[in-house]
Structures are given as structure tokens and as C-alpha cells.
């Protein structure tokens, strides 16, 4: 996998002030692959995503260790100029809330054309033609008219389509999608995820899909990495992970969702809560909430081990 | 007698350029004592407006709200106040609905003060009892909301809502903002309290898998109207309205194949300018000519049109009314 990987994150450590938030994340993603990064709030999934774009608020955040190799180059070594060329051009990102990511005072056409003009040597007219092409591809009705519209004149689903159009403007090799459908209704969510799935199959673009929704991951991703407390605790193909979750956290998470349980019965709840950065326990971060604790769990952090199915657990499920 | 009966409840808002936005249109529903009625629909369908209208937190534009047989619509705000003891609500955002400058004990005890219940000592005892009821530590009463996590804050909101022993609780997206592992704790708490206190709950959510888990009956809303209502089991296992069918199949669930899904085209129409006939006809995969012009009424279908034992009511021309 390492040889064909488009992006390889290796042993990434990120601190906020003096508190570690990311404590050794390693991930890789191949061209055309959709990798799901799942976890609850505070587990570090969005921080990981932002670090790939080098969009962390530095300071207070600081990458203290590790590498992020994209297409043979360590992103952490790049200067601002090289980063400008990377962002929006080779790696693009979409966020949960498309309303705040779009500029309210510029038209849709203007904002998409801006991306094209920034990264390509084309005329204004060519950039607008490209904008129409992109809006057509993401399923915006009457794209020519849509160019002149403003973000507030569109629905949430349409705004997310516009964000995707902007992200696709320069045919990026990697799209980082951070909770792209969390703010949308389920019927619209299905449309947007289908669109992303079609696009990566068509263009060979890799997608890093960050979400808290296990159902979404199971239906769209090739591979899944589960994060807890700033680390990847389990990683496997989606089919394998959902059929045979082995880390006790993944197992508990899948069991606790209402969809896995008959109506009316008590849900098998996970006690306690996700420890915030700075208050993470020693040993395995999950051990205070785990029902299958054994001797080393409270003192030693297990390593992430395995071949195709990686787990970080002293006492994994069979 | 039903605990609550809504008759033709509606709420309109003035829109732009003299348009009228029908947020809730002609909703008739009942809730029995000890029953959980789930209300599901996408954003903008009017489910939150419905929840707030029936408490008169938003003044409805028309219809009747019969609570234990008494029409709340006819009551003055003053006459309404004692009734509010029986009707409580919890909201989605446990960060926005608790005053950051009050102690948790003050927040939970406030309804008791407002309604003049008990002496200071009795109220303190009641607060302690409520903290225990929702699974918060005893010393929580002296602390402030910011010291608590999202799940714990929702417990505080629940304790406050239960302070006056209400008969009906409106839970408006009460677990939607919570993390997966916390969501199940709060669902369990609400279900447990419902049984112990024989509460009636109007459980509003956009998440059908949560709704299915807690509800006895489910009402599905689309553009301000109920399009289908019936026992939870029947709605989930034998949905009739094409919108309910699409909504159910759109929920991504681990272990369920993506192939058999119905993916709807388009989005919720503008409630200021609703489509003619059936409001769903612009997105319906089974649309017929009549749907463009005639609005179907919510009714029990003819026995021949549905499976044996069906009791759901549905507003769809595919199912001729009995």
C-alpha cells in the first residue's frame, strides 16, 4: 500500500499549547480511494484533516513530530508559496457548513472562477466557462443563471454542491471532506454522497471522508480508520470493519446506535464521555469506558498492530 | 380521553412581498397518556413549529389544542400559566438553553420558584431528587453549566423540564447535537423516565432510527402537513407514503446495501410557494396526474389498498380513502 499511496501521514503529533491533541496518527490513502475517518467530537479527526492542508491555527497549534507525504513531497517542508500551489489545486477541502465557507458578497460564478484564475493561466471568459461546466457536473439546475446568484439565494444542499464545484475546479488529486453532509437532510445527504462517489470513480480523485456517521462510512468508503483520543485505534476495509469490529471502542460504538437495536429496549450505552485533550488517561485512552479491560490497559498504550486489519487494543474482540 | 388532541392546528408567517408561509397546515393529532409520539421530517417541514405551537410558545394561527379536554387556545396568558406546569419542553442545544450565569441548582429549581412551589428547603430537596433522577452527582447543583459536557447539560435540561411533574414533554431534537456514545445514554434516560413517570412525549427528530427506537406511534411531516401517521412498527415495516418510503431508505445504516435505495431528486420546496395538489408531487417517484391538482387528505386507506391489520392514516392518492 505504501508504494502506491497518494498521501501518507506518518506518526503525526500535534499539540495545542502544551496539550497533545494528535498523538501519533499514521494513515495512507491511494488514488481513487475513499477513506473514512470516523470518531466523536474531540478525537482529533478535523485537526488531522486541517493539518493535511496546513490550515491549522499555528500557534496555538503546533505540529511537533511526523510527516505528511503527498505525491512524494513532505507537506511539512513546503514554504508558503509551494503550499499556495498545493491548496485548492492538488488538494481541495470541503467543510460541514457551506454557508460560512462561501463569501456572501460575491456571486457563485465569481467565487468558482477565482479558484480557476488563481491556479490556471486562463482568461476570465475561460474561467467562467469552466465554472458553468463544473456547476453542470455537480447538478446545479440552469448553471448559466446560477453564476450570477449569491450564496444566500441557494439552499444548503445547493451550497454544498457549489463548494464541491469549487473544490473540483482544478481537478485535485485529493479531496478532504470534513463532515460534508452533517448539516444536510438525509434525502439531500444521499444525493451529495452519491455525487462524491461518482466523481472519485470518474476522475480517480482520492477522498478522505471525515464523519461521525458510521452508516455513511459503511455505505461509501473502501477503508475506514476509527479515531479515539488523538489516535487511530482501528483500521480495516469497510466490509471487514463492520462485519468484525475488533477494538472494543468500535465494537461498542456499532452496538450503541439505535439502528442496531430493536425498538424499545435499552441501548447498550458506552459509559462516561470522550476525554478532552489534556485530560486523557494514561494507558489505553478508552480504558475508563471499556467493559473488557485487562491488566495493561490502565498503564500502557497498546501499539497499532495487524496486517490488513489494524487494531490498538490489549484485549480485542475475537 | 386523549391527553392532548390537536385539531386543524396551523401556523402561518408573513413572507416576503405579501406572501404567506404556511409553516404548519391543518395538523390534527392525538397523544394518549404515557404515549410517545415521534414526529419526523426534514428541516423546514414544520416539526419544531408544531412542537412550539402546541405549547403556545409560538402563537398558533388557527385550530384547537385540547389538553385534557380543555382548549388551550381560548386561554389568556394568565390562565395559561398554571397549565404550563403540565407542558414542558427540552431543546436541541444544551449549550444555548441553559443560563451560563446561574448555578445548575438554580436552573433546575427555577420552574418551582416561578410557579411558587414549596418552601426554600422543599425546593432544595426537590432539586437534589431531580439531580439523582437524571443521573447527575449531588454536588452538580452548586456548579455552573460550562463545567458540564454536552450530555450532562442535556441531563440538566431534562431535570429542569421534569421539575414540575409535567404530563407532556416536547423533546425537540433533544439528542441530535450529541455524540454517538452520549446519544444512547440520553435516549436510555428519556425512555427510562418516560416509563417511570408515565410521561407522554412528543419526540421531534429528523433521525428516523432514533424516532423508531423511542416511539409508540410516528407522524411523518412534509411541508407543514402530516403525510402519514400510525403505529411505529407499521410506519417502519410497511411505510405507505412514497415520501416515508424514501426517507426510510435514505438512512445510511451499517450492513444495509446502498443499491435498493430510493434517492429523491431535488429538495424541500419553498413553504412560501408550495406546489399545487400534493406538496410532494415535485419529488415523488410515483407521481400521477391527479397529484398535480388535488391535495390528498390524511385518512385511513380502503382495506383493499393496504395489508391486513393496517391502521395507519396516509395522505396519498395511491391509497384511496375508505
TrEMBL record, chain A:
Keywords: ATP-binding, Cell membrane, Membrane, Nucleotide-binding, Transport
Keyword Transport set for record: yes
Molecular function in Gene Ontology: ATP binding; ATP hydrolysis activity
Source taxon at top rank: Bacteria
Membrane topology: Peripheral membrane protein
Gene Ontology CC: one annotated term: plasma membrane
Biological processes, Gene Ontology terms: peptide transport; transmembrane transport
ABC transporter domain sequence ranges: 7-254
Subcellular location: Cell inner membrane
Keyword Iron-sulfur among record annotations: no
Xref: Pfam families: ABC_tran, oligo_HPY
PANTHER family xref list: DIPEPTIDE TRANSPORT ATP-BINDING PROTEIN DPPD, OLIGOPEPTIDE TRANSPORT ATP-BINDING PROTEIN APPD
Similarity-based family: Belongs to the ABC transporter superfamily.
NCBIfam families in the record: oligo_HPY
Protein name: Oligopeptide transport system ATP-binding protein
Lineage per the UniProt record: Bacteria, Pseudomonadati, Pseudomonadota, Alphaproteobacteria, Hyphomicrobiales
UniProtKB/TrEMBL annotation, chain B:
GO biological process, one term: peptide transport
Chief location of this protein within or outside the cell: membrane
InterPro entries: AAA+_ATPase, ABC_transp_ATP-bind, ABC_transporter-like_ATP-bd, ABC_transporter-like_CS, Oligopep_ABC_C, P-loop_NTPase
Pfam families: ABC_tran, oligo_HPY
SUPFAM superfamilies: P-loop containing nucleoside triphosphate hydrolases
Topology in the lipid bilayer: Peripheral membrane protein
A GO molecular function held by the record: ATP binding
Protein name: Oligopeptide transport system ATP-binding protein
Annotated source species: Devosia limi DSM 17137
